[in-house]
């Protein structure tokens, strides 16, 4: 389904969102955000070699804010958040209307736990450029994690109306539909996310959960297995695979998959509970 038809169907639905989450063990993992958010910042690479070359560019043009913005993105992808923050600060000092740098700095602020500063930066980015889809997606993620579901939905919807090609907008709107048990619409959004980012595991896992909620176990199993194939460290996908094995009565395979999920994420409660169920008796 293309973005235009998705927008039209969404406008026709117009349902009132609530904060209720999906109930039941099968959907316990549905609220996970997609990983790899730094892949959407200026396509920068976080390698030491790339950072070194970017530093050389900055040395040659120390008053060019774009160099700091790109190197900040590279630092962010490499997990060097304080260095990234410093570069985005410099980029904004050199160009106070650099809306991309505000949005990029907001993501760093989120990861550092300063949600108020992140929100202020996203708002500033959108104020400067009301058509910047990445800022809406980032702010939508911030709202969603804060439980401000309607505001999150509105931001993802706005990015989609701007014809974004960023899969996160569809994936995260799909998570909201899923949390409202609107599984047919969630599946549409997850499918669009997959078409935009076919190597991302999270939309497959999300779509698999919605298929499972609709008792389409075969499609659910295929999607969850694909999520594991794409990202073998996805604890939720392993737990969801285990759940399907458990539903099918294969406790041995279920326990094995739950055990892998617990190994990857020792605090993930659905996997711990599932392992306790399938490892006894």
From TrEMBL:
TPR repeat ranges per the UniProt record: 65-98, 99-132, 133-166, 167-200, 201-234, 235-268
PROSITE patterns per the UniProt record, alphabetical: PROKAR_LIPOPROTEIN, TPR, TPR_REGION
Cross-referenced SMART domains: TPR (SM00028)
Alphabetized InterPro entries for the sequence: TPR-like_helical_dom_sf (IPR011990), TPR_2 (IPR013105), TPR_rpt (IPR019734), Ycf3 (IPR050498)
GO cellular component terms listed in the entry, alphabetical order: cell outer membrane
Signal peptide: 1-28
GO biological process: receptor-mediated virion attachment to host cell
Coiled coil feature spans: none
UniProt KW keywords: Repeat, Signal, TPR repeat, Transferase
MF annotations from Gene Ontology: transferase activity
Domain of life, source organism: Bacteria
Protein name in UniProt: GlcNAc transferase
Organism: Mesorhizobium temperatum
